[in-house]
Amino acid sequence: MKIAVVALGKIGLPLAVQFALKGHEVVGVDTNQHVVNLVNAGTEPFPGEAHLQEKLSELVPTGRLRATTDYADAVPGADAVVLVVPLFVDSEGIPDFGWMDGATAELAKHLSPGTLVSYETTLPVGTTRSRWKPALEGASGLVEGRDFHLVFSPERVLTGRVFQDLRKYPKLVGGLSAEGAAKAVAFYESVLDFDERSDLPRPNGVWDLGSAEASEMAKLAETTYRDVNIGLANQFARFAATAGIDIYQVIEASNSQPYSHIHQPGIAVGGHCIPVYPRLYLWNDPDATVVRAARAANADMPDYTVGLLEGVHGDLTGARVVVLGAAYRGGVKETAFSGVFDTVAALEKRGAAVSVHDPLYTDAELEKLGFAAHHIGESVDAAVVQADHVEYRSLSPADLPGIKAFIDGRRVSSADRWDGVIYRVIGKA
User: Fold this and answer.
1) In this structure, are residues 152 and 125 in contact, taking their beta carbons and an 8 Å threshold?
2) In the sheet that 382-385 helps form, which strands lie side by side, from edge to edge?
3) Which residues is 116 bridged to in the sheet?
């Protein structure tokens, strides 16, 4: 097959590579000429994705994978087009379809009869049918269900382990017609491999959910569940701390029973997915009080964590406080909706002199994000762990001279490493 993948980001590029590894001719489209040049040179444009560089080095010289900025080069004659263009949500939870609308318009101009079009970007329920179908039909002059087929198939992978996750989790699809869904099932079966999983109710593979709306909701449901679960864990943690209870022992004990799956509490919920997709769900279902309450509870955790520091340190005016971790999670160089922003804001509101450290970021990169860069070995009065980088597990008072309080927002350390320092972790008195 000839396959076009629109947007060569941290999900799109590994997808394009996976399709090419299965022997298909793949052309990636991206608006960033620098990214296109790097891909065509066989060089990964972003670090941290396991096995991506080695697979690019293998594929690009064969001609099975190339990149372009030109839709007219990639789309005409394609058997399938897969779009993984970012969708953004503002602070009020309103989706911004700008980039996706632009990509859809360009795709439609060059769409050929017989093409399968699959959107993988997480969407509010109903978007595929009510927005993309008329947009594609209107600009192409083709009729969905007759001249081309449109489906929604959400990406279900984490950056850093995309190739592993593509094998591990069922590929969900939902079409606007039974014929379109069947074509999508056949397409994804030809480009993906699946691990055997005895824990699933049916064999691992491509699962047709019966409609685009069901497939859209499945992605929102699985991610919103995580946000709600973390919100509950954070509520439990806040109460446990007031009652002299170790919440981590409680969670471990509760989860020993097979119907309990309580997540871990923490300083923040960040990234492109968990803090965003509940807002997309609320866009469809504004009366979902449980979802709204959990989102609010999680959004409050950076301020709560800084409050823990204030409680043990006292007035923070002028205190030198380092926030450890700009990234939203350990080992991933990404600050989308990272808790670092609200943590720094909460500290500055209390008058602290704040710096930020992250082993994945240079001083210039931290400064571009608006932070003063900290270097391990410089004196501080206190520290707040925001990201669970592996490097923070071995920290000790010698690394942060003068430190009086260490607030462990990710439970990366333990009190016995901080002799003479006040150590606090979320969920323990």
Assistant:
1) no
2) 353-357, 320-324, 382-385, 405-408, 422-425
3) 80, 149
DSSP string of 324-378, one letter each residue: E--SSSTT----TT-HHHHHHHHHHHTT-EEEEE-TTS-HHHHHHTT--B--TTS
Strand partners, 385: 324, 408
Q: Tell me, what amino acid is at 377? A: G
What tokens were used for 195?
């691990």
Quote the tokens at residue 393. Answer: 């597990």
Q: Which amino acid is residue 238, in one-letter code?
A: R
Largest Cα span, the chain = 73
Instruction: Give the separation between CA 203 and CA 199, rounded to whole angstroms.
Output: 9
In the numeric block, the tokens 């049916």 are attached to: 202
Residues facing residue 4 across a β-bridge = 27, 81
Q: What is the dihedral of CA 44, 47, 49, 52, to 10 degrees?
A: 20
Per-residue pLDDT tens, the chain, 429 aa: give them. Answer: 999 999 999 999 999 999 999 999 999 999 999 999 999 999 999 988 999 999 999 999 999 999 999 999 999 999 999 999 999 888 777 899 999 999 999 999 999 999 999 999 999 999 999 999 999 999 999 999 999 999 999 999 998 899 999 999 999 999 999 999 999 999 999 999 999 999 999 999 999 999 999 999 999 999 999 999 999 999 999 999 999 999 999 999 999 999 999 999 999 999 989 999 999 999 999 999 999 999 999 999 999 999 999 999 999 999 999 999 999 999 989 999 999 999 999 999 999 999 999 999 999 999 999 999 999 999 999 999 999 999 999 999 999 999 999 999 999 999 999 999 999 999 998
Torsion of CA 103, 155, 283, 92, to 10 degrees: -80
Full DSSP string of 20-72: HHTT-EEEEE-S-HHHHHHHHTT--SSS--TTHHHHHHHHGGGTSEEEES-HH
The pair phi, psi for residue 380, each rounded to 5°, is -145, 165
With tokens 């000429």, the residue in question is 33
Catalytic machinery residues: 219, 273
